[in-house]
Each structure stands twice: as C-alpha cells, then as structure tokens.
Amino acid sequence: MTKLLRSWVESANAPQTDFPLNNLPYGAFRFAGGPLHCGVAIGEMILDVTRLEADGKLSLPAGTFASGIWNDFMDLGPKAWADFRTFLTEALAEGSPRQAEFEPYLVESGKVCMEMPFRVSEYTDFYAGRHHAFNVGTMFRGPENALPPNWLHIPIGYNGRASSVVISGTDIRRPWGQLKGPDMEAPIFAPSRRFDLELEMGAIVGRSSSGPVSVQQADDMIFGYVLLNDWSARDIQAWEYQPLGPFQAKATATSISPWIVTQAALGPFRTSTPAREKELLPYLREPGPMLYDIDLEVGLAPEGKPETILSRTNYNEMYYSAAQQLAHHTTSGCPMRVGDLLGSGTISGPEKANRGSLLELSWGGKEPLTLDTGETRSFLEDGDTLTLRGAAIGDGYRIGFGSCSGKILAATETPYG
Amino acid sequence: MTKLLRSWVESANAPQTDFPLNNLPYGAFRFAGGPLHCGVAIGEMILDVTRLEADGKLSLPAGTFASGIWNDFMDLGPKAWADFRTFLTEALAEGSPRQAEFEPYLVESGKVCMEMPFRVSEYTDFYAGRHHAFNVGTMFRGPENALPPNWLHIPIGYNGRASSVVISGTDIRRPWGQLKGPDMEAPIFAPSRRFDLELEMGAIVGRSSSGPVSVQQADDMIFGYVLLNDWSARDIQAWEYQPLGPFQAKATATSISPWIVTQAALGPFRTSTPAREKELLPYLREPGPMLYDIDLEVGLAPEGKPETILSRTNYNEMYYSAAQQLAHHTTSGCPMRVGDLLGSGTISGPEKANRGSLLELSWGGKEPLTLDTGETRSFLEDGDTLTLRGAAIGDGYRIGFGSCSGKILAATETPYG
C-alpha cells in the first residue's frame, strides 16, 4: 500500500486532509466575479494551472486550460493525463526545485468559489446497487418481484438530463410535478411531497468512442470520479415511470462534488465487484478489479441546526463497476463523448444504517427517521442541507472527495413563480 | 389560406417543390472536403448565408453563421428569427431589387453534402401518439392494459442520447445487444433480430429556460421541425426496458432530415390536438392550435430494388403537441437549452396503413408485410433503405421537409469489429 507522499505545501501533509500529494484532484474555481480557472487541490491550497499555462510554465498544447474547465485536458488522452500527474507530483513534492517558482500560483481554497469542473456532455444514471435495487423493488413491486429478471444480467441505466447537473453548494428548489397518490382519483399538479436524495458516485468519461468497447477499454476511458447526489421526487416518479422510466422525477437537479478525483489517484484502492449471483455474459466480465474501496456518508442538517449522519456506506457495495456500465452503454454502438457523466446508482449497504436514500431509510415513509435533534424525517423538508462526503483511506493518508452539498428551498408559490 | 409566394429563383415556383419561398428552411451544407456553411433552401438551390454574412450583406451580430450550424442564430431569439425571415422573403421574392446581388450566393443543392443543421444539446423522445401507444401496449401488455394509467394525463417521455443523432443519409449499422426471447433460458449477446424504424417529427428548442414554462411559452420556444426516425431494436428493448425505460435499444442512431422547417413557415397549417378523452390538468391545456397538419409517409427499398410505401399518416394524429411536451418537460425545473431536440413519438394513424413502425405493421412479426417486390418483412433486413417524407399541403404549394433516409448495414461480425 502506498504511503503519504510529502509536499512542500504543509497543509497537504496533515493526516486528515482530503487533498494530500497522493490525490491531486482537478477542479474549476473563480474569485468573485472573475473568470474560471482550472485548479489542482493540494492541502488547503489550489494550484492555479490556468495561470501557470498563461505564463508558459506548462508543456501542454496552448490553451488547454484557457476555458477554466477540464474537457480540453481530458481530450488529450491517457498519456497526457499520466504525464501531467507526474509533472504535478514532482513539482509539489517536498524538496522540489520548483517550489519557489510554483508558490506564487497557489491560492487559498477558502477564498474562491468552486464551479462545475467540466462541461457535462450527457448524463446517464444507473441502478447498479444490489441492496438499493432490492429495497426499492420490494417497496414498489413486493419482495418476490423486487429484482427485475434482467437485473443480474444488465447494469440497468437510463439517460438523465445533463442540463440539470449542478455544482455542490447550489440550492435545490423543491419541484412541482404531476402526482397521483394511490388514494387519489385523479392526478394533481403540486410541489413534490416525497423529495429525496440518492447517494451515488459519478464517473467521468474522458475519451470518446464510436462503437462497442470492452470492459477493459471502458475502464481506460474513465478519467475520474466525483460524489453525486441524484435528487429524486418519489411521488412524481411513482406516477410517471411506467412504461418508459423516470423523467421529471430526476430532472430538477443532480449535484456533484467540485473535485474530480482521478482514476490514477484511486489506483491503490481498486477492488473487485461482489461475487456474481449469476454468471455475466462475457462482454460484461471484469478482467481485473475496477471498483474502488471508498467510504461514503451522507448527513442532514435541518435549517440552523446540527447535522445528523443518515448513512455510512462504501462504493465497493456496487454490483457493477463504472467500467462495466460504460461497456454496456456502448453495446448498441452508442457514441460516448468526453464529458459524459455516469451515475453509479444509489449505493446502499446491507444494513439499515447503510442505506443511501430516505426512501429506503424511512421505508417509503412508513418508518420515519429520528434525527439527533429529535426531529423526524420521512423525506426532505425545506431548509434541510444534505451533504455527501467520501474518501479512500490509505496508510496515513486519505484520497478525499471533499463534499457535495445542497440545501432544499421551498417550492415556488405557483408553478410559474 | 396563404398562396404560393413567387420567387426569382424559378425552381421555387414549381408546384411540387418542397422549398417554395413560403418555406425557407435552414440547413448546413459543405462542398466535398470544405467547411460547413449555413444555407437556406429555395427550390433546387441553396442560399449560402455564411458567405453572405462574410461579405457583410447581413445585419446580424458578426459571426452568427460562422460555425456553419444554426445554434448561434437560434440563440438570438424570436425577434431575430422573424426579422431574418422577412429579410429573406423580400430578398428572394419575384421582382426583388436584390436579385443581382444575391444570385452569386446560390449553390445547386445537388452539388453539396448536407450535414447536421444544429448541434443537438440533449434529445428527448416522447410516446405521444394515441394509436401507437395503444398498438404497442396491446402487444406488450395486452389490450386491457395497453394504455398505462398515466398516458391520458402526461405526455410520457424519456431522455434519449444526443450523441446518436445523425443526419439523413448516414448508414445505420445493425446493433449488437443483450437479448432474451421469451423462449430463451438465459440472455445472449447478439445482433438485434428485430430492428425497426419509428416515423416521428422532431421539434427543435430555440430558446433556453430555467424553470417551468407554460404551454404558450413552450410554443414560443420552438424554432422549427424536422422529420425524425428513431431506430429501435425491439428485442433489446423488450429485455432491458423494465423498470427504467429504453436504453441501448434506442441508442444506435436517430436520423433527422437536413432542413429545419421553421415554425413560422408552418403557421398556416396549425391545428388542434384531437379531442381529449380525459380533461388535462390546466398546466397542459393548449391555449390555441399548436399541432400541425403535415402529411407523412415512409418507404422501404430493399437493396437494389424499388421502394414500397409502408405507411402514410399525418402529424395531426398526435395526442400531445410539441409545446405540451416541452411544457411538461420543464415542470420539475429541468433547464432547457438551445438545440434540445424533442421526438414526437411514433406517429401512427387509426388504420393499419397508417402505422409508423414495423412492430405495428407486422404486429410484432406475426403478420409479415408483403412488399411490392413480393418480398416480406417483419423487421428490417440488411440492405434496406428507409425513407421518411413529409409536407404540409397549401393552396398550390407545399411546405416540404425533404426526406430522411438511412440504409441498414449488416452487424459487424464480432461486437468489437
């Protein structure tokens, strides 16, 4: 197991930092009112690579970081990804001769706003957590029909809405929608009453493809990972989702954490998917460990009150890896593009304390949760702030994702308010 | 009813042209190997507006047509759309003083290649044809459950894959996919055996929005329409679509016709949606006629053989208009963007001769069609060329869409071939 790599940026050597030299995640930041810059997190600082490039200190194609987001860099491909990581690792290492040259390009992370680190080309969300699928299936269709017949054969997914992906910190407005409860005679148009979170990981596609790709090729196409909260209106979903899947229930917003943690940084934490209950078709079999051991948690803080941790789980609970999902995604010849985002599906573990959605935690609202503040929750209330956190835990260091948060605002008074 | 507007471009006055002065649809073309140009179809000619702009002959923001596609123009908004249409109509009218000035900017449509006229931001496909929904529902779930309970209340839709949208003329490779017929014990990975077309219209969103919009606002946001063929692998769809909807079955390709027929050109052909079987919620009610009377047909030509018309139908068969679909699409707060494409859903009419897919025409393969050549078809065969055509029929003129065609190529021998 790799050890902590020490940096001349002192805060990067603290045992609890999310951003040691081993990590080097990629984000986009701005000073209030200023233009976007590409940045690399190191301890409590951000290395401004857009300014480094402008000053001629990087050997990448001109303008790679000019847009302030990472799509153009991704487009350079895996060799450039690896070379740049090596360059950064050496430049920021304790004892590097570049310290004096690079120090002026560090900005304090507390003084800037983080923005979307890449332009989302298209967004696909999967349903690839065994425990989540069983829990939700049981609630919607009963335990005997919980797992659809295709579930153990296909990483089930649906296309989501890229335009609705937002950066952590963006407020989330409770949606209006068409609903029909089981006791209603006709549907109504009203604000969602069963608005929920989904704790997920997002995989970012860094290479384009124009035909089917193997699981190994798919793994090579993945640039990095973020935390992802797929906000979900359960009452809208229940009424709309047959026969063509969730649509408006999932289109209000999907929040992601601001730092893209690269696949390279996560290398020491690779792990295999759980044992197969049915053998997969050859095109979906993993040639090696392509899932990751990443501790995850989600907390809920009511307006002005302390946070309660709702759930702790791990990315290694997924039945299908992002590489398997991506390989399946291309089987039809579906072209993939740089900046495509794949949501893992909700990551629930085997126990109640490991469930990644309120739908599961409150069992469809039948067993409201009691928060540390004494309040109860079946679904989200206005003013609640939800925060996902995640980290791969190494020997004396952590590859952290930072956090992914969003606060629920009340619905507008009228739909067109 | 408007009459034919005469143009100094003689071929635009022929009664059977798709592109009289009344139409003026927008496309993107190139000479072999050359850059993209924005063009306007007029009879058998194309007016090169990218070159007109480069020569300073247009009063639009500099560079509007520099990309050779229409997204930047759409982004200028409805006043610019109307002004430019008025300008073109006057410049190309019989007797216009601009004839000598504009003649050098006409290119023969037969000498150029048509390309995608706009960059598709995201693609949504609906399921909004009453006859199609009933036919397919009957086959999949039996006549008593044919129409899902939500169908008469919601324009049911799902997010498709923008990266798979291609221009008419692009060959369509038969996809591989995971299939499981009702008689198979386990799924297999194989080329689709039930590959199909879907005759649809596509509506192009020309204005962005960031919250719910009314049906009237939605109608105002629609820039124009194209013919759309949503290629569909029925065997992949049948196995994958529960519970989250079609995914790889619809991701191989979606073909569109090259000319964007503007909403303005279609104005004289507005018509109301059919009578409601259940009253819609107020947010979905039409404030006026927002559907269009457009004759549609689809033909199939086996390799090297003449074409058989499979079906004739009309866009006015849709139960929901594109404006209603778009309004519903925004209810959750889902942001819409310039270049979003909405597929109408398959447009089948009441009779067998009006069905817009082979699934319906051959009743799931149980009643193969006999072509004029004597061959039969349940689903598409390799080498088949499918062609959609459409036109709104005026008094002595037609607002034509041109055609939308694609030829089926055999699947690759191995999935990764």
UniProtKB/TrEMBL annotation, chains A, B:
<feature type="binding site">
    <location>
        <position position="241"/>
    </location>
    <ligand>
        <name>substrate</name>
    </ligand>
</feature>
<protein>
    <recommendedName>
        <fullName>fumarylacetoacetase</fullName>
        <ecNumber>3.7.1.2</ecNumber>
    </recommendedName>
</protein>
<dbReference type="Pfam" id="PF09298">
    <property type="entry name" value="FAA_hydrolase_N"/>
</dbReference>
<feature type="binding site">
    <location>
        <position position="230"/>
    </location>
    <ligand>
        <name>Mg(2+)</name>
    </ligand>
</feature>
<dbReference type="GO" id="GO:0006559">
    <property type="term" value="P:L-phenylalanine catabolic process"/>
</dbReference>
<dbReference type="InterPro" id="IPR015377">
    <property type="entry name" value="Fumarylacetoacetase_N"/>
</dbReference>
<feature type="domain" description="Fumarylacetoacetase N-terminal">
    <location>
        <begin position="22"/>
        <end position="117"/>
    </location>
</feature>
<dbReference type="Pfam" id="PF01557">
    <property type="entry name" value="FAA_hydrolase"/>
</dbReference>
<feature type="binding site">
    <location>
        <position position="346"/>
    </location>
    <ligand>
        <name>substrate</name>
    </ligand>
</feature>
<keyword id="KW-0460">Magnesium</keyword>
<feature type="binding site">
    <location>
        <position position="250"/>
    </location>
    <ligand>
        <name>Mg(2+)</name>
    </ligand>
</feature>
<dbReference type="GO" id="GO:1902000">
    <property type="term" value="P:homogentisate catabolic process"/>
</dbReference>
<feature type="binding site">
    <location>
        <position position="237"/>
    </location>
    <ligand>
        <name>substrate</name>
    </ligand>
</feature>
<comment type="pathway">
    <text>Amino-acid degradation; L-phenylalanine degradation; acetoacetate and fumarate from L-phenylalanine: step 6/6.</text>
</comment>
<dbReference type="GO" id="GO:0004334">
    <property type="term" value="F:fumarylacetoacetase activity"/>
</dbReference>
<keyword id="KW-0585">Phenylalanine catabolism</keyword>
<feature type="binding site">
    <location>
        <position position="230"/>
    </location>
    <ligand>
        <name>Ca(2+)</name>
    </ligand>
</feature>
<dbReference type="InterPro" id="IPR036462">
    <property type="entry name" value="Fumarylacetoacetase_N_sf"/>
</dbReference>
<feature type="active site" description="Proton acceptor">
    <location>
        <position position="132"/>
    </location>
</feature>
<keyword id="KW-0828">Tyrosine catabolism</keyword>
<keyword id="KW-0479">Metal-binding</keyword>
<keyword id="KW-0106">Calcium</keyword>
<feature type="binding site">
    <location>
        <position position="198"/>
    </location>
    <ligand>
        <name>Ca(2+)</name>
    </ligand>
</feature>
<feature type="binding site">
    <location>
        <position position="127"/>
    </location>
    <ligand>
        <name>substrate</name>
    </ligand>
</feature>
<feature type="binding site">
    <location>
        <position position="125"/>
    </location>
    <ligand>
        <name>Ca(2+)</name>
    </ligand>
</feature>
<feature type="binding site">
    <location>
        <position position="200"/>
    </location>
    <ligand>
        <name>Ca(2+)</name>
    </ligand>
</feature>
<dbReference type="InterPro" id="IPR036663">
    <property type="entry name" value="Fumarylacetoacetase_C_sf"/>
</dbReference>
<dbReference type="GO" id="GO:0046872">
    <property type="term" value="F:metal ion binding"/>
</dbReference>
<keyword id="KW-0378">Hydrolase</keyword>
<feature type="binding site">
    <location>
        <position position="141"/>
    </location>
    <ligand>
        <name>substrate</name>
    </ligand>
</feature>
<feature type="binding site">
    <location>
        <position position="254"/>
    </location>
    <ligand>
        <name>Mg(2+)</name>
    </ligand>
</feature>
<feature type="domain" description="Fumarylacetoacetase-like C-terminal">
    <location>
        <begin position="124"/>
        <end position="394"/>
    </location>
</feature>
<dbReference type="InterPro" id="IPR011234">
    <property type="entry name" value="Fumarylacetoacetase-like_C"/>
</dbReference>
<dbReference type="GO" id="GO:0006572">
    <property type="term" value="P:L-tyrosine catabolic process"/>
</dbReference>
<dbReference type="InterPro" id="IPR005959">
    <property type="entry name" value="Fumarylacetoacetase"/>
</dbReference>
